[in-house]
Amino acid sequence: MSRLNQTLTVAKWEFMQFFKWKQELIGKSIMLLLALGMYLWHNQVLYQPEPQQIVSNTQLDGLQLSQEFVFRTEPKSNEALIEEVKAGAIDGALIFKSTELPQQVTLYTEGKMSWQNDLSGQLNEYARSQAALSLNLSQTQLALLEQPLRFETNFLDDSVKDQMQQSALTANALLFLMAIGIFMTFGQVFVAITGEKQQRVTEQLYSCMDAQTWIEGKIIGQMLHAIKAMTTTAFTALLGMAFVQVILKGQTLDFSIFDFSVLPWFVLFVLVGIYMCTAFIAAIAAAIDDPNHSGKTAFMMIPLIPTIVGFMMMDSPSSLSVTVLSYFPLTAFVFMPMKMALIEVPFWQVIIAFISSIIGCIVIRNMAARMFKMGMTMYGKEPDLKTMLKWAVAIRS
């Protein structure tokens, strides 16, 4: 078997030991069915609800409620209206405790229902219009008073994107997905490698393949899990946004708040970055003898540092520090996609950052392979930091 076939065999085994396609398919199907059911329920395809019967003992001139409600005025006492609610004759009783502005009103219902919030909003709109009439204000004047300050920032740097909200949301989403991928590799690589070391399967595997092949296969397998987790998270987030827009708010489906033009470059940087982070985590995990009492577990969180710093520096994409970090081999995979989402970046800068990331990936991969080989064959005693650094910079393993 060639080295490439060995690597792909290890990658397939590493991926399939944590991936159960039937469970994934069932889980996603249930999620889609729930979303479909909610959509049909909200759009009243499955049922046609009866309008809510709302009665008030105070005349409200000009009040027009939506078709969800049937509103009428009856000259009855408060106690009589409340008794009708208890008997189920009506759904709600509006009792006005004052006629002066601002009016105080109490809604009596049998239980808590979703339509009560809709009714409250419509009554507030009615009270707003009545207040405008009492002050001799037109609707146009009242709308002007409610207008916020129109504040905008004019950037002299032409590279800053105009749609700042879209850019900020895109940058946040990219960094969040990157963190999801790193967390996924952190958890699964730690469990897989420390478990294999404690079960002493190293000797058997080294008899049929070298350390470089083994770690490359493990990295590729765990990368697939990270990409799956990131894709699932993105799909779920978009589905949730669609649910809020279409079902809860009744709007048309609109994903224009995200800048999808940076997605192809983000995928390339993710592949390089996740490979680099997984290789580093695998190297540290191989040096851990007892995962329950090792002090080296904290070092496995180092790949998260660029993502955390990226969140902190997102407000200054044009700064010198972000520019430097977007070229640095060990941080470019995070900062360049973030920078591209926030400002216009020349194509040559993206190419330089990508080449820099590949160089960093190769360096970390080679160092991790040497550390992985020595760490997996060392039992009973964990290597100290000086020994691990010596393995990392060794010319030959």
TrEMBL record:
Q: Where are the transmembrane segments?
A: 173-193, 226-248, 263-288, 300-327, 347-368
Which UniProt key words apply to this protein? Membrane, Transmembrane, Transmembrane helix
Pfam families linked: ABC2_membrane_3 (PF12698)
Q: Is DNA repair there in the keyword field?
A: no
Give Gene Ontology CC terms. Answer: membrane
- Where in or outside the cell? Membrane
Q: Which domain of life is it from?
A: Bacteria
> Which one of the record's GO molecular function terms can you name?
ABC-type transporter activity
Checking InterPro entries in the record gives: ABC2_TM
| Segments forming domain ABC-2 type transporter transmembrane | 31-364
Q: What membrane topology does the UniProt entry give? A: Multi-pass membrane protein
Q: Does the keyword Acyltransferase apply?
A: no
**Descriptive protein name:** ABC transporter permease
Species this chain originates from: Pseudoalteromonas phenolica
Lineage, highest ranks first: Bacteria, Pseudomonadati, Pseudomonadota, Gammaproteobacteria, Alteromonadales
